[in-house]
Amino acid sequence: MTYELLQPVFIISSALIAIGLYGVMTKKNMLKIILSIGLIDTGVNVLIVAMGYLPGGTAPIENGNYAVYVDPVPQALVLTAIVIGVSVMALALAVAMGYYRKTGTLELDKEGVMKW
Amino acid sequence: MILEAFGVMLLAVIVVLALDRYPRIAAAVAIIASLLPLFALTSWAGIMGISLPSFLAPLEFESSLVYNLGPGTLNLAITPLGWFFLLLLATSFPLALLFASSFVRNRAGGFYAGMLLTMLGSFGVLLARDALTFFLFWEIMSWSILAMVLRGGDRRAIVSYLSFGSLSAMLLLFGFMMLYFKTGTFLFGDMHLDTSLTTLVALSMIVAGLAVKGALMPLHVWAPHVYSRSEEPFVAFLSGGLSKLGYFGMLLFMYGIAGLSLLSSWGTFRDVSYFGYALAVIGAFTAFAGTVLAVMQDDLRKLLAYSSVGQLGYIAIGIGIGTPLALTGALFQALNHTFFKAVLFLAAGAVYYRTGKWKISELGGLGYRMPFTFLAALFAIFALAAIPITSGFAAKWLLYEAAIEKKFLFVTPIMLIAGVGAFLYAYKILYGVFLGEPRYDVKEAPISQLVAMWLLVLPLVIFLIFPGWVADLAAPILSEYGMQPIPHTPYVITTNLAAYNTLAVIFALMGALLVSLILYKWKPQEVVPHEDNYLAGEPPELYEYISMHAASNYYEPFEDVFGPVFRRGAERAWEIILAAAEFLGNGARRLYTGLTQDYSIYILLFFLILVGWWLLW
Amino acid sequence: MVSVPPVLLIALPLLFAFFAPLVNMWSRKAVKVYTLLVLILNATLSYLLFANVMQNGVVYEQLSGFYPPIGILLAVGPIGAILALLINTLSTIVYLTYFGEAENSVKFSMLYMLVTASSTGIVITGDLFNMFVFFEITAVGSYGLVASMRTKESFEGAFKYIVLGSIGSAFILLGIATIYGYLKTLNFYDIALRIDTMPPTARLMSFIFLIIGIGVEAEIFPLNGWVPDAYQGASNRVASFFSLGPSKAGIYAIARLIFTLLPILSGWQLALLLGVFTLIIGELAALMQEDPKRMLAYSSIGQMGLILIALSLHSETALIAAIFLMVGHALAKSLLFLGVRDYARGTLRNPLIAAPMFIGILSIIGMPPFPGFWGKWYLMKDLASQGAWLIMLVIILTAIVESVYYARFLHRGTGGEKRKLSRSETAAIIILASLLILVGIFPNYLYDPAVRAAASLLGGGP
Predict the structure, then answer these.
(1) Which of B422, B486, B576, C450 would you label with B262, given CA atoms 20 to 30 Å apart?
(2) B597 touches chain A (CB under 8 A)
(3) ipTM of the prediction
């Protein structure tokens, strides 16, 4: 029953991940790649939050009424994942900035990259 | 005392490395450390039935040792075969170091350290009684040779040595592991091999791996490069001593572990196993091709290198035929080759030390300037060319007889032709370097170099007079393999076809020599420059740029015939294999396009493949 | 013997790393000394932990007040103790080279401590999500370390690393979510107990997610696109540090995955296949490589393949081999990466550089008596006893390829004028080479722990 309820969420998160992967696989621009990574992260996070969901559950905060509450662990996971995602994003942007300063471009093209 | 010997030698390695700036002291330390294997040799003389006075054996070495390392156990024990080869190595090694004490000047610490490590490795190989120990010390020996080759800094030498050394290591490893799979043990004593195909493949792999070190064709590619681009004292020991370890291993694995009856179980040809016959044919081919290639060389070192390859081929013939006579001949040839090739490389080193030249066509007349070097080299050349008064002749005589006895119609003629070929290049060294009009006004080689060379000549003289002593040394080895030692006295080795009698040969030859000396002295000869000799006394002044030395293009017609066939045949094959690997390598490299897009596509593809695999499975 | 709470190994460097800026405000020069002291402290602690584990068996510690399986558990088994000791000791030695540098960046030191701590965390944790967090800290720190050179190459390498690392972490997260969704637990040993109750589909999917995610960090083909670029872009010190810390932690995580977490048959086969491919591709790609750092990076990939093969054979002998290979590779590669700074003609003229580098190369190509040899010998022994000739053949052929490119590499350093490294770098490579010799000549000091680690891993324990 739960899974039927969550079907749209799964679809949305899968779509987010797919869009993100598509971006990573096709875009050359560093900023676009970073955005795509952000999309993937978001998709995964949505998925995990949805997994812990119970219909009619409350937030897992102890307030005397905890007959039905959603699983707290996925939320903890997602919180951590979000924090990590943000820091990675910030670092990625900083690196992109550094790259731009050195080369004057944000494109990772076939020419001019380290390869082989 | 075995462990202590290893420890002291390792310590000596560190000490000589630290003494890099003081070459003389480093040499002294290295020579003192190099006496340890010699004392081990004398201490173990009992197992060959030799009793030595106690002052010759000051140190007591235990005859076997088991040492637990944790991941493996080292099993060391002295055997007659090991003793025989230790005799070759332990005696030539200190002399090579003695020669080096005046020859090697820069970065001497590294030189002596590498030399000591090669000896340390060889010492372990000769004592090894299980596959782990054998492989461990074999590879220590192998990479310390690499360290010495690195000092030369020649690209082809480094790359060919390391790739062939690695090939050899891997063949050995694979072979040992197959034997382990078959028998469940690494101990040589417990390996009871059966006649299965696995055993055959394993033995072939091991012998091929050993043949790399023994410079058998077509696995010899590294040898000319390494021999001609490293320091001479080292090369003398490498060609003289270390290359014998390959043949030591062949004897150990073919006759000590597998045994004659097992080899014969895979089919025989005139009572010689196919396995041995194949080795004999390869050996004969090596002897022939090595000799032909040696004749074509102008570089003295290259010439000696190919000559080594050729001479080592004879040992393989003897091991392949595998009769008591042939094995005795092979051991005799190994012994001779150790000493005469060491003398020749050292003499070449001494010549270089004084003149700075390697090319035969730039040398000449040194016999008048360096008479003692010349005499030592002359003796070695006689032994090399198997002139019928030297121990070299005795060894080859036994080998010829062994081949004739088995009616090897293919091997025997090739051996004989190669034997004649040896005259050609021996003459080239003799005449091109030492005879003719003196070209350089140089001094005799330093005393340490002379002493080293002459001490190496000594065994050649001893075994010239007492060829039977080699048969004495071979007897315990043969009886270990369940073979009858060949009958002999110190002067006479009795064989089925014709006995080799030193005294008869010596007297006959002395008579002939006397007659020829008288004839030679009848009319005094004039010493002429090499150029005159080449052009009938009329050198054209216009063509100065043509090298008119007698030794350049001396055997041109010969080279025209054989050159296209032999020159770099195996080397081509090696290059083609290398090129194929490089092609694959470039392909693999192209996968790393440097684009994150491609890398993430790989990840996704990988994911899809895994999911697809699971769906299908 | 003092019993050390394992958490100190992680907590102390993390804590001290955040104090580093304070030290920096006091004196810029003191930061290096401060960091070195922290690393030495950590190495000492890791040694005490190692001794403790060897004496008393597995050390458990639960954090955050809850009991397992809900609370976070640290479980230090023999393999974790070996790797923690390895990572902390070697990172201290490699850090020594920073003293030869005029540059004095507090950020570098902080990141260095951070990555050391989190790599250690990966090998001593007993909790899947905890491992993920440490993975991410390691990754973030590593990105920063790669970029710390501030050249075009280092930014580029860091960027590629970030992209692939992020995709990898998304996969790990998916794997964790799948497992949690079915078993409601994240404790390794709890998962291992109840893994059979998972439906096969979910089990396999989680395995696939996790192996892809971890494989990115463990440099497994085809997930290792970032490796050559990041190693080439990073400074030598950082490349050296990577080959001893994060990559070893990554391969440890793979071991944990295939031994404890998801011991299913196809997992072994898949890991074996991956190992073989990684080995072949890595060694072949290195063959024609001219840039020394990039060549060493490809060679690292090949070595990782070898270690993965050893891990996936599921036998005690092979696991011992894997541990010897890991230790040998960590020592030798970190040595070589340090030694190749300004590698050119004449580097090998200097015996103080030539001898250690030579020893490092010998260990990598599996020459006795160095750790790489023991690893290869044991691996071959295990393969031989199973009659796996094809894999043996692959290992042998790649070893020959390996020796060809190392021969060329050696040749490029001979001749010419004598070159020098800074004093601290020379000291570091000499220490690393002596460690290689010691482990090689006295292998029993590593062998006994390795036997325990193998037994413990095979038994499903930490």
Answers:
(1) B486
(2) yes
(3) 0.92
